[in-house]
Design a protein that fits this description.
The structure is a homotrimer. The first copy, chain A, has one domain (2-189). Chain A is 76% helix and 0% strand. Chain A contains eight helices and no strands.
Chain lengths: 202, 202, 202
């Protein structure tokens, strides 16, 4: 069950990466690499930081295979995929929620503190997208007002606390749900993250 | 004493990162992430390269706490902070001098050669700023004539030699002082690093 | 023999990195750093991912020395070097062929599967160029139609299969030759990698 969620997260993240490649008119290799780094990059960075080498993405073949499949789908069917719009956004939000929890748990199991595990959970969830944006010479989307990383940070924090307190498994679902609901509300209501505080005129 | 210097270096580096975030009109998360990577990124890259995982920045909570504090200060008070101008430049130069020495020593203790320790000392000192510039889709400032990395390289080289020769502790102060003085003179006199050599006409 | 090939690959890759630095009017440090990361970056990323730390580039001084030499040559003689044009392209293709094989073998020796070793072989061959482009705020050249990474991927795949099957040494030469010939034909004939598939009108 968890594996299915994780792989569907990788698939959707990789879809968004490959779509950026198509939009930027990159070649087939650019599309493939963007799919791979967007789908797997967050987990790879986390694994490097906790010293789990080679990273899972290089050990468990279903992970790169799933990201590659997303690249193939986008390569041939980018038109229809782009028209899915909202459904991708939903799947992407599920991926975000799964990754912030699974990344936090992996970091906590490696012996990291609550704070460090929270940070690495968020890195797992958003790191791939940041690498995608860096590779296409863009300022990362998550820094530009999109309310995307803060829900992941919340989900990661809750799961780190649950892990530390040795709480029951369903609480991880709660953590993921908090992230998912906040993210979906942000999309639907157009909420955005605030930029630097400016004193208002009276 | 050293810890205070190190943390004040992290704080100032993080300040400059957060200020770039404000100037680029990024959101609160972008400001926080730029503060964290600018303050801690050089040390994290060094730790990855010497195999010290998880990196210090994830183990010692004062490090990320200090960088986060700088982000909070900039978020609310970016106007006054920007007006500090010269004082930030001074603090930033102190941070540079401390990091090039402490980074070199950490690398040498991990068993690296004089040359490799020198390189990693310089990476510790300037790596955070490079990541900051990459994340904001800019060519790194230190490649564009700013005389910033060469003083750090000198400080790193001197400390690597002192470490190799098992020299007395005050010599590390000398290494840091050389870096600091060169950097401050460069700022005051407007010295810059030369670009590619071009044959002059007679 | 292999060492000579490897070092000549580092030298040529570093040349191309340094030339980009000159073209972008970076200072001496920018030219040096671009030479180092282009010549050594692919191998460093591979070493980090297989857990070989410190990476070879920090342990074997001929590697950084060779890259530094290339930076010095370009710093003083960028005009003549640029006029070499075709010869650099040939040397660069040889470097690509050597690195995709040596990177794959290093990954396989570290215990990685055929697929992972292939991926890391390709990363070794093209990673430095990608970092060079990221550091100069460009979308990586290898994503923009240049038929460069696909030959490396082929060479890596063949060597990974040879390694897995414990095949005789000359077959590695075949792997390198396949990469080299495909790459040189691509240069000569102007072949490029296809971008996203688009239904043709009848």
């Amino acid at each position: 069950m968890l594996d299915v969620l994780e792989l569907s997260g990788v698939f959707t993240f990789a879809l968004t990466g490959a779509l950026v490649g198509v939009r930027k008119d990159l070649d087939v290799l650019g599309i493939l690499v963007l799919a791979l780094v967007t789908g797997l990059g967050g987990g790879i960075v986390r694994d490097l930081l906790i010293g789990h080498v080679p990273p899972h993405a290089l050990e468990d073949w279903p992970l790169p295979a799933t990201a590659t499949a997303a690249a193939v789908v986008v390569y041939f069917l980018h038109g229809p995929v782009q028209r899915l719009g909202r459904s991708i956004l939903l799947l992407d939000s599920i991926g975000l929620s799964v990754f912030c929890v699974s990344g936090t748990v992996a970091a906590a199991h490696a012996g990291l503190s609550v704070g460090a595990a929270t940070a690495l959970g968020a890195v797992t969830a958003v790191g791939g997208g940041v690498i995608r944006d860096v590779l296409t010479a863009e300022v990362p989307l998550i820094f530009r007002g999109e309310l995307y990383a803060l829900p992941a940070l919340l989900g990661a924090l809750v799961s780190a606390v649950v892990e530390e307190a040795d709480g029951p498994a369903p609480l991880y679902l709660l953590a993921a749900a908090l992230c998912l609901v906040w993210r979906l509300l942000a999309v639907r209501r157009g909420w955005s993250a605030p930029s630097a505080w400016r004193r208002r005129a009276w």
